[in-house]
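Before relying on records like the one below, remember that each one covers exactly one chain. Contacts with other chains, cofactors or solvent are not represented anywhere in the record.
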Amino acid sequence: MEKGFISVQSENIFPIIKQFLYSDREVFLRELVANAVDATTKLQTLARKGEIREELGDLTIELIVDKKKKTLTIRDRGIGMTREEVEKYLNQVAFSSAQEFLEKYKDDAQIIGHFGLGFYSAFMVADKVEVVTKSWQPDAKAVIWTCEGNPEYTIAYTDRRTERGTDVVLHLSKDSTEFLEESRIQALLEKYCRFLPVPIKFGKRKETITEEGKDGKKKTRVVEVDNIINKPAIWRKPPAELKDEDYLDLYETLYPYSEKPMFWVHLNIDYPFHLTGILYFPRLGNVLEIQRNKIRLYSNYMFVTDDVKEIVPEFLTLLHGVIDSPDIPLNVSRSYLQSDSNVRKIASYITRKVAERLNELFKKDRKDYEQKWDDLGIFIKYGMISDEKFYEKALRFALLKNVDGEYYTIDEYREKVKANQTNKDKKVVFLYTHDPEAHDVYIREARARGYDVLLMDMVIDNHFMQHLEYKMDDIVFARIDADTLDHLIDKGETRDAVLSEEEQKQVEALFKEVAKERDGATVLLKALSPEAMPVQITRPEFLRRMREMQMVSGMKQNDMPDFFNVVVNTNHPLIASKLLHETDETRKQELARYLYHLALLQNGMLKGEALTQFVRESLEVVGGEKRGEKSEE
């Protein structure tokens, strides 16, 4: 037996490793399994090169828990190590055998580990680590290396291993006994190692099989089989080899019990960086919620993180799926992504591929695409707002929907309405509503004039409309209740007023008096069509948008007062004739108040006691008598 000292810069390296090497100590299992996979991959590479001629046999990696001994063993049947290799690779912290192997076989090998510190993550959970290994090389002797969490180690030949490969035996510390629980190990293997290219076995599982007996009847029985963790990493396969069922099976594995996705995009690029993956489009509905932890980053099949904000533009985090790339720079813990030129290129590539996929679906089957728009719209609009390159591409397949359920691209819609909805400033007015039921009277009036009305009811639409107005200086959005139609689409035309200036002053004074009961009201007199409503409630577009954006961002609604206009149509018969010709001042004021409350009711602004009183007054009008008065006999 030989004793020696691990080559490190500080006597305190092990406490540092134990506490600070990784932000989450559970990743020790990922690192050790990654090393086992690397050892197996190296062996397969040597076999392909013809340096190993015999059959490789079973290459399954196995994890073994021994609760009595309080040990966790990671066993592989890979390349193994000679005594010299153990001394070279284990006794010098941060000296990575993976890096040396990559240099020699860089065109053939796919090695997960690059850092050399991964093995020492074992000391975050173990008081003692044993490595029992036997090299593939002929006549090699098995070696055991032991270290108890300090720079001193022992190394000796042993007969504990007779076949090629390596056992890493962790003698778990008192504060790490959670890793003796099968459920804990199973969960970690499923999280980090489910898609590795080498079979990983952990214990047994029960499986029900159906057999046909001699009597021809089918019988079922429960048997124990090896519990293999792995599933195929289908994103590494060519799309031509995959069926829809393969993609849906992966989605079910990643997101059990989730609703099926609408479609997906398969990523595959070799230059100027390596990246594969599959991104799924879930059914978002009208919910703008960044789906944190829904896109998973892998490095050569090994799960790294589900925080991909450095790689994927924020709007793409609404998607689900997998990205696998060895070219993404990681720190020693593989949990923090550093921005560099490769990352920016990868983000740009993913954005482009998603846009191409959407455009392909739009052109291939527009009807089907339109049917998916209620789920796609919020994603595409968010992307257009937040990513300039995506905006440029999305103009081809972003849709606007009108209240009749018809869909148009932005250019198509502008051409549809510009002849009739261009104002005196040469801007095409896109009329819209967020609530067709509430705005039914306005929509009917617009239709009567040959105008078209869009449905803009997504939570992001306020921002989306402002973005389009900023990018396209020849259009403007106006909600159908933002003003009267004559002013929303102001073509510079004027309508003769029925009332004289003196009569207008009387009407204005009357409505200012009744409107005083509510803060934020401004009375405006306008000579509109006699067919238009006698009194309308409008809200200035700019102020209303600001208020609604406050609500979306979570600010208190009362931070901005509720300004609105009370527009009195001086050309309506109820104003021009009935109201002005009423000689009883009390009845005149009651009629003005009634018309004002009717407009409030139409806009959902009449509530509580005021609504109750309005209903009572309406019943009195219908009954032809005031409350408390008896009808004449």
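Residues 429 and 476 are 5 Å apart (CA to CA).
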